[in-house]
Design goal:
203 residues; 0% strand; mainly alpha
Amino acid sequence: MSPRLAPPTARRAALVGGATVVGFLLPAVPALAHPGHPGSGFGSGLGHPPTGPDHLLAMVAVGVVAAFASRRWVAWATPAAFVGGMVLGAVLGLGGVSIPGTETAIALSVVALGAIVVTTAGRDGTWLPVVVGLFGVAHGVAHGAEAPSAASPVAYVAGFVVATVALHAAGAGAGWTVRRAPAVRMAMGAAVSASGVALLLGA
Protein backbone atom coordinates (compact mmCIF):
# COMPACT_ATOMS: atom_id res chain seq x y z
CA MET A 1 0.00 0.00 0.00
CA SER A 2 1.41 3.38 -1.00
CA PRO A 3 1.76 5.96 1.77
CA ARG A 4 -0.83 8.73 1.92
CA LEU A 5 0.36 12.14 0.89
CA ALA A 6 0.47 14.64 3.71
CA PRO A 7 -1.81 17.64 3.32
CA PRO A 8 0.05 20.76 2.17
CA THR A 9 1.28 23.04 4.91
CA ALA A 10 0.47 26.76 4.80
CA ARG A 11 4.08 27.53 3.89
CA ARG A 12 4.13 24.99 1.07
CA ALA A 13 0.76 26.26 -0.16
CA ALA A 14 2.02 29.84 -0.25
CA LEU A 15 5.14 28.78 -2.14
CA VAL A 16 3.20 26.75 -4.70
CA GLY A 17 0.59 29.46 -5.19
CA GLY A 18 3.18 32.19 -5.50
CA ALA A 19 5.36 30.14 -7.83
CA THR A 20 2.38 29.43 -10.08
CA VAL A 21 1.55 33.12 -10.39
CA VAL A 22 5.18 34.11 -10.93
CA GLY A 23 5.54 31.40 -13.56
CA PHE A 24 2.64 32.82 -15.51
CA LEU A 25 3.88 36.40 -15.04
CA LEU A 26 7.45 35.92 -16.26
CA PRO A 27 6.63 36.08 -19.99
CA ALA A 28 4.71 39.29 -19.37
CA VAL A 29 7.38 41.28 -17.53
CA PRO A 30 8.75 43.09 -20.61
CA ALA A 31 5.28 44.47 -21.45
CA LEU A 32 3.96 45.80 -18.15
CA ALA A 33 2.71 49.01 -19.71
CA HIS A 34 1.15 47.57 -22.90
CA PRO A 35 3.58 49.37 -25.20
CA GLY A 36 2.09 47.71 -28.29
CA HIS A 37 3.17 44.69 -30.25
CA PRO A 38 5.13 44.55 -33.48
CA GLY A 39 3.73 43.02 -36.61
CA SER A 40 0.16 42.86 -37.71
CA GLY A 41 -2.81 40.56 -37.93
CA PHE A 42 -2.95 37.15 -36.32
CA GLY A 43 0.56 37.17 -34.84
CA SER A 44 0.05 40.52 -33.15
CA GLY A 45 -3.25 39.39 -31.66
CA LEU A 46 -1.72 36.12 -30.54
CA GLY A 47 1.06 37.95 -28.70
CA HIS A 48 -1.09 40.51 -26.91
CA PRO A 49 -2.66 38.54 -23.99
CA PRO A 50 0.44 36.58 -22.88
CA THR A 51 2.61 39.71 -22.75
CA GLY A 52 0.29 41.76 -20.55
CA PRO A 53 0.29 40.61 -16.91
CA ASP A 54 -3.24 41.86 -16.30
CA HIS A 55 -4.66 39.94 -19.27
CA LEU A 56 -2.56 36.88 -18.58
CA LEU A 57 -3.50 36.61 -14.90
CA ALA A 58 -7.20 37.17 -15.56
CA MET A 59 -7.36 34.62 -18.37
CA VAL A 60 -5.52 31.95 -16.42
CA ALA A 61 -7.70 32.67 -13.36
CA VAL A 62 -10.86 32.24 -15.46
CA GLY A 63 -9.65 28.75 -16.37
CA VAL A 64 -8.92 27.97 -12.72
CA VAL A 65 -12.39 29.15 -11.70
CA ALA A 66 -13.96 27.01 -14.43
CA ALA A 67 -12.14 23.94 -13.14
CA PHE A 68 -13.65 24.50 -9.68
CA ALA A 69 -17.25 24.75 -10.92
CA SER A 70 -19.52 22.02 -9.57
CA ARG A 71 -21.86 22.24 -12.57
CA ARG A 72 -20.49 21.21 -15.95
CA TRP A 73 -22.37 23.88 -17.88
CA VAL A 74 -20.89 26.57 -15.62
CA ALA A 75 -17.42 25.13 -16.21
CA TRP A 76 -17.88 25.56 -19.97
CA ALA A 77 -19.97 28.73 -19.95
CA THR A 78 -17.58 30.73 -17.75
CA PRO A 79 -14.59 30.81 -20.15
CA ALA A 80 -16.94 31.00 -23.14
CA ALA A 81 -18.57 34.10 -21.62
CA PHE A 82 -15.17 35.71 -21.12
CA VAL A 83 -14.23 35.09 -24.76
CA GLY A 84 -17.61 36.34 -25.98
CA GLY A 85 -17.41 39.47 -23.85
CA MET A 86 -13.84 40.02 -24.99
CA VAL A 87 -14.79 39.87 -28.67
CA LEU A 88 -17.64 42.32 -28.07
CA GLY A 89 -15.27 44.67 -26.25
CA ALA A 90 -12.70 44.35 -29.03
CA VAL A 91 -15.28 45.38 -31.62
CA LEU A 92 -15.99 48.47 -29.54
CA GLY A 93 -12.28 49.21 -29.10
CA LEU A 94 -11.52 48.72 -32.78
CA GLY A 95 -14.43 51.04 -33.58
CA GLY A 96 -12.85 53.81 -31.55
CA VAL A 97 -15.17 53.49 -28.55
CA SER A 98 -13.33 54.42 -25.40
CA ILE A 99 -14.57 53.45 -21.92
CA PRO A 100 -13.17 55.57 -19.08
CA GLY A 101 -11.29 53.58 -16.47
CA THR A 102 -10.74 50.51 -18.65
CA GLU A 103 -7.30 49.76 -17.20
CA THR A 104 -8.66 50.16 -13.68
CA ALA A 105 -11.54 47.81 -14.51
CA ILE A 106 -9.08 45.24 -15.85
CA ALA A 107 -6.95 45.41 -12.70
CA LEU A 108 -10.08 45.07 -10.57
CA SER A 109 -11.07 42.00 -12.57
CA VAL A 110 -7.76 40.38 -11.58
CA VAL A 111 -8.41 41.19 -7.92
CA ALA A 112 -11.95 39.82 -8.15
CA LEU A 113 -10.95 36.65 -9.98
CA GLY A 114 -8.33 35.90 -7.33
CA ALA A 115 -11.03 36.29 -4.67
CA ILE A 116 -13.34 34.00 -6.65
CA VAL A 117 -10.61 31.34 -6.80
CA VAL A 118 -10.42 31.48 -3.00
CA THR A 119 -14.14 31.49 -2.24
CA THR A 120 -16.18 29.64 -4.86
CA ALA A 121 -14.60 26.20 -5.25
CA GLY A 122 -17.26 23.51 -5.34
CA ARG A 123 -20.19 25.94 -5.36
CA ASP A 124 -22.83 26.22 -8.06
CA GLY A 125 -21.59 29.60 -9.27
CA THR A 126 -24.44 30.09 -11.74
CA TRP A 127 -23.66 33.82 -11.73
CA LEU A 128 -20.07 33.31 -12.85
CA PRO A 129 -20.62 33.48 -16.64
CA VAL A 130 -22.34 36.88 -16.34
CA VAL A 131 -19.65 38.39 -14.11
CA VAL A 132 -16.77 36.90 -16.08
CA GLY A 133 -18.38 38.01 -19.35
CA LEU A 134 -18.34 41.61 -18.11
CA PHE A 135 -14.67 41.22 -17.22
CA GLY A 136 -14.10 40.02 -20.77
CA VAL A 137 -15.64 43.18 -22.22
CA ALA A 138 -13.11 45.35 -20.37
CA HIS A 139 -10.20 43.22 -21.57
CA GLY A 140 -11.56 43.24 -25.12
CA VAL A 141 -11.85 47.04 -25.23
CA ALA A 142 -8.17 47.26 -24.30
CA HIS A 143 -7.23 44.71 -26.96
CA GLY A 144 -9.15 46.61 -29.62
CA ALA A 145 -7.79 50.00 -28.63
CA GLU A 146 -4.21 48.71 -28.73
CA ALA A 147 -4.45 47.01 -32.14
CA PRO A 148 -1.65 47.95 -34.56
CA SER A 149 -2.98 50.31 -37.22
CA ALA A 150 -1.81 47.98 -39.99
CA ALA A 151 -3.41 44.89 -38.51
CA SER A 152 -6.27 43.06 -40.15
CA PRO A 153 -9.06 43.38 -37.55
CA VAL A 154 -10.41 39.89 -38.17
CA ALA A 155 -6.98 38.24 -38.01
CA TYR A 156 -6.03 40.29 -34.95
CA VAL A 157 -9.18 39.26 -33.08
CA ALA A 158 -8.68 35.64 -34.12
CA GLY A 159 -5.13 35.77 -32.75
CA PHE A 160 -6.02 36.98 -29.29
CA VAL A 161 -9.00 34.64 -29.10
CA VAL A 162 -6.67 31.69 -29.73
CA ALA A 163 -4.24 32.98 -27.09
CA THR A 164 -7.06 33.49 -24.61
CA VAL A 165 -8.45 29.99 -25.09
CA ALA A 166 -4.95 28.57 -24.57
CA LEU A 167 -4.56 30.54 -21.33
CA HIS A 168 -7.99 29.40 -20.15
CA ALA A 169 -6.93 25.81 -20.83
CA ALA A 170 -3.68 26.30 -18.90
CA GLY A 171 -5.64 27.73 -15.98
CA ALA A 172 -8.12 24.87 -16.07
CA GLY A 173 -5.25 22.40 -15.92
CA ALA A 174 -3.79 24.19 -12.91
CA GLY A 175 -7.24 24.29 -11.33
CA TRP A 176 -7.77 20.56 -11.70
CA THR A 177 -4.38 19.98 -10.10
CA VAL A 178 -5.12 22.00 -6.96
CA ARG A 179 -8.89 21.65 -6.61
CA ARG A 180 -8.53 19.07 -3.84
CA ALA A 181 -5.79 21.03 -2.09
CA PRO A 182 -7.63 23.93 -0.44
CA ALA A 183 -4.53 25.51 1.06
CA VAL A 184 -2.79 25.64 -2.33
CA ARG A 185 -5.96 26.95 -4.00
CA MET A 186 -6.32 29.70 -1.42
CA ALA A 187 -2.67 30.68 -1.73
CA MET A 188 -2.98 30.80 -5.51
CA GLY A 189 -6.09 32.97 -5.37
CA ALA A 190 -4.51 35.29 -2.80
CA ALA A 191 -1.42 35.68 -4.98
CA VAL A 192 -3.58 36.56 -8.00
CA SER A 193 -5.54 39.13 -6.01
CA ALA A 194 -2.33 40.62 -4.60
CA SER A 195 -0.98 40.93 -8.13
CA GLY A 196 -4.23 42.64 -9.13
CA VAL A 197 -3.83 45.13 -6.29
CA ALA A 198 -0.30 45.90 -7.50
CA LEU A 199 -1.65 46.45 -11.01
CA LEU A 200 -4.45 48.60 -9.62
CA LEU A 201 -2.00 50.85 -7.81
CA GLY A 202 -0.12 51.31 -11.07
CA ALA A 203 -3.22 51.76 -13.25
